[in-house]
Predict the structure of PadR family transcriptional regulator.
Amino acid sequence: MDVEDWKSQIKRGSLEFCILLLIKQRPYYGYEIISVLEEYPIVAAKENTIYPLLRRLLKGEYISSSWQESTEGLPPRKYYTITEKGNDYLNAMSLEWDNLLTAISEIKGALNHG
Amino acid sequence: MDVEDWKSQIKRGSLEFCILLLIKQRPYYGYEIISVLEEYPIVAAKENTIYPLLRRLLKGEYISSSWQESTEGLPPRKYYTITEKGNDYLNAMSLEWDNLLTAISEIKGALNHG
DNA sequence: TAGGGGTACTGTGTTGTACGATGTATGTGT
DNA sequence: ACACATACATCGTACAACACAGTACCCCTA
């Protein structure tokens, strides 16, 4: 039970949130998502985490996917797009996220306010 | 897989963070912690979640405990105090928490910056 | 005497996610 | 031949939150 363990606990939920935040902006393919998240160690995750997560989101119809050929002999890519249901879900998550930030900041200040 | 599920995922790690943030300020007893967290639905949790969590923190020596008599015939209370190790742990968590907030805010703005 | 609230704790089992390990395929570079 | 990057995938495990259900004790009130 050290900080590394805690970091992997924190990713629970945060990862899903980050991925939907990304895909909301434009279609991303799996490997690309992994690369983007790699820039932020706190939410970095490998294939064995991201692909199952994407499959879960697909299954829940929060995102949809479509294959697209790559130029220059690269393997084809599976692009993910957010659905309307996914957008609703993301909005609900954003609200709860704000609640969490509020809770933490009030808890931090508990001494001063009673 | 709805927002309720996501909320319980988000609690992983956040709960531990909140409890250490609380206890850092002054000693709290278990029932008191549960009551305080109840005010924030996003981090609210019942006995069967909080007590095992406190036991984990005790076992890892992030907190220590001591019994104290209550006035007016109330049952004695077990007060939890943060240890030095717990403080170090909490500081490390705070850093990672900031990293998470930064990551999310940058991911939200990915369209505008590249 | 029955019920409710404060206070601490235990046990069993389910669920869901991160993650370690591993596999499959293609193309490029050495 | 071998490593490395791109790209997607599966299997199994560990662990925290949590549902549900208890034990035990003391006080106060209806």
Notes: Chain B has a mean pLDDT of 92. Chain B touches chain A through 40 residues (CB under 8 Å). Residues 84-108 of chain B form the longest helix (25 residues). Residues 8-9, 11-13, 15-16, 45-46, 48-49, 52-53, 56, 72-75 of chain B lie near DNA strand D (CB under 10 Å from a C1').
